[in-house]
DNA sequence: CTGAAAGCGCTTACAG
DNA sequence: CTGAAAGCGCTTACAG
């Protein structure tokens, strides 16, 4: 453990005060060109990096933002998703010279929530979080504290929260319409995500809207939980006497579609000949299965990047006019719906 | 943004000095029972949480540890892996009242490495990192700085580094022997991970050792990169004229085995009837495919947990006797090798 | 224009 | 035994 180099050490080497060295390092006009260069050289030679605690204490900020992962969402959102979010936060964080802290929203030994400690202790200047189940108090209490918070996702109950989101309902509607309008599907099934999560609700709603406005008679829903296994289970439920009474299935995410694949295959049901299927997310798997899966690309990394930028804005400018953003989504057409993409 | 509650505010409410309040809160015997209770009550009422910067500056530590993700390993280790590592670090970190910082090892604008800034700025007290490619200077320079560092994995070139690892060579040897001894495989293929990563090298070595000591004549190796796609590619290479000249395939990880599945299936090659296959990792997918995949369970979360504990030791006690640990691994027998597990 | 004090919040070593 | 100063490293507002 090399002993840390302080500003004082840098200043001493040059023969100025720490205050002068500090100003020199940030290019203050009141420091002469010559001493500025001398200080910079000394700092470089000594490997000076400002002490975070000293700087944070003085500047009254943490130089860090936190990603708080709701316990209840660990099993609903994929590891892929969180890694995309994390990496999306990285570049804006680096640009603001801030660290990224990861925390769950567990209760601490002291009985308060981890995110509260993080903020109250000023270990982070703001928080990015994702939806938990809709009846979880967590998000409400998080937003209720008035701290700088940016949420990822759609929060109809929190109109004042700053949220970066995609229109799950519209996207789900769009991909369902593709099945109906472009492929002539008439007997539809939706394998939903947990319906106590907004994402599950919205994607189901889009499916139902599309079916209703096209006058589709068969538009069933089986509730899953976004995990691969539940996609498989849904298929076992849906297959009656070895046959599937649907010609199109809209899965609420790719993982469930992937889980469905072997079950359909084992039942001798071909994709897309016997049933056309679509997924949602496009975090990686959908591209790699056979057939590859037509899906909605959720730009998780971009969402998180914009969320981080927005959070830094919020932190810098205080509570300001709601700057929620809804990002466009696009469908990626692959073979599972019966399309024959160019690049295939 | 509620204005933070300081110790001074707590002290003022009780009518003692901040110093006394500080001692009261940590149960110093020199504070009377009565005032201790009064201070605790006031702290609770005001929602006092110690300011991290103030405490860190005074205590000369960061109250945080960092997971540094080498750029070069993002594509070799899975998102699953990193999320397991992150969650493994969570509990020890909370127990030590420390934050978990996530960083890549990118270069900063100032030209030094991110991990150096983190340590030199004392934003983290120590680092946990995973292997990058073996010719990457990164790990060497990280360890060379003498900072508290715990590495995840096997580092034959760094005998003095503190590492928490599993014996990839032994595990790979063991699962290969299972194919040979228990299932009578004679014509073996290993689909390796990148051979510029130690993990790839060790898992290949275990395979070769097992084959050699059993006197197996066919023990081929195709190099992949741990991604699903490269498993599929390896199968396309291995299948000659529609047939596979192997009766057993040892994949260096589950993802590549998963990628191989559809290619084998499309070629009409049955598992395990025509070829027995095994994976490595057991982070989730291997359990869910059809057939499910016999694999080595890598306890990534436990590894990271122990790494974090070890790191806190290292931080507290300074550089001390190497406390590297090698964890045992276990094979999970499923259907892809021809076993018929009880729970299936 | 520039030198050097003051103070962010905390905790411990010191003085009484 | 206890009160209150000193100081961690930094930066800006102030005094000269």
UniProtKB/TrEMBL annotation, chains A, B:
PROSITE patterns documented for this protein: HTH_LACI_2
A GO molecular-function annotation: DNA-binding transcription factor activity
Domain HTH lacI-type positions: 5-59
SMART domains: HTH_LACI (SM00354)
Domain of life the protein comes from: Bacteria
Gene3D superfamilies per the UniProt record, alphabetical: 3.40.50.2300, lambda repressor-like DNA-binding domains
Keyword ATP-binding belongs to the record: no
UniProt entry tagged with the keyword DNA-binding: yes
Transmembrane residue ranges: none
UniProt keyword list: DNA-binding, Transcription, Transcription regulation
SUPFAM superfamilies: lambda repressor-like DNA-binding domains, Periplasmic binding protein-like I
Protein name (record): HTH-type transcriptional repressor CytR
């Amino acid at each position: 453990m090399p002993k840390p180099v302080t500003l004082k050490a840098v200043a001493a080497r040059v023969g100025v005060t720490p205050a002068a060295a500090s100003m020199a390092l940030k290019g203050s006009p009141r420091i002469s060109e010559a001493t500025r260069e001398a200080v910079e050289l000394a700092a470089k030679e000594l490997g000076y990096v400002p002490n975070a605690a000293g700087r944070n204490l003085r500047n009254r900020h943490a130089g860090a933002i936190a990603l708080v992962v709701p316990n209840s969402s660990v099993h609903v959102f994929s590891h892929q998703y969180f890694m995309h979010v994390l990496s999306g936060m990285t570049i804006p964080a680096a640009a603001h010279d801030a660290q990224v802290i990861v925390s769950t929203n567990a209760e601490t030994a002291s009985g308060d929530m981890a995110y509260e400690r993080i903020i109250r202790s000023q270990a982070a200047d703001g928080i990015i979080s994702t939806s938990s189940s809709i009846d979880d108090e967590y998000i409400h209490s998080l937003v209720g504290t008035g701290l700088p918070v940016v949420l990822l996702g759609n929060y109809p109950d929190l109109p004042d929260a700053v949220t970066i989101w995609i229109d799950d309902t519209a996207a789900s509607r769009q991909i369902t319409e593709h099945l109906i309008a472009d492929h002539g599907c008439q007997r539809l099934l939706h394998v939903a995500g947990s319906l106590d999560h907004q994402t599950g609700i919205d994607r189901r709603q889009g499916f139902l809207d599309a079916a209703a406005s096209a006058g589709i008679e068969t538009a069933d829903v089986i509730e899953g939980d976004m995990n691969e296994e539940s996609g498989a289970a849904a298929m076992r439920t849906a297959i009656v006497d070895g046959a599937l009474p649907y010609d199109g299935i809209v899965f609420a995410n790719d993982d469930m579609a992937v889980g469905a694949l072997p079950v359909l295959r084992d039942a001798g049901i071909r994709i897309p000949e016997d049933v056309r299927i679509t997924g949602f997310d496009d975090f990686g798997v959908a591209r790699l299965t056979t057939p590859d899966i037509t899906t909605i690309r959720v730009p998780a990394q971009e969402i998180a990047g914009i969320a981080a930028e927005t959070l830094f804005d919020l932190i810098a400018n205080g509570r300001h006019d709601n700057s929620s953003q809804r990002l466009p989504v696009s469908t990626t057409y692959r073979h599972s719906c019966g399309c024959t993409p160019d690049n295939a």
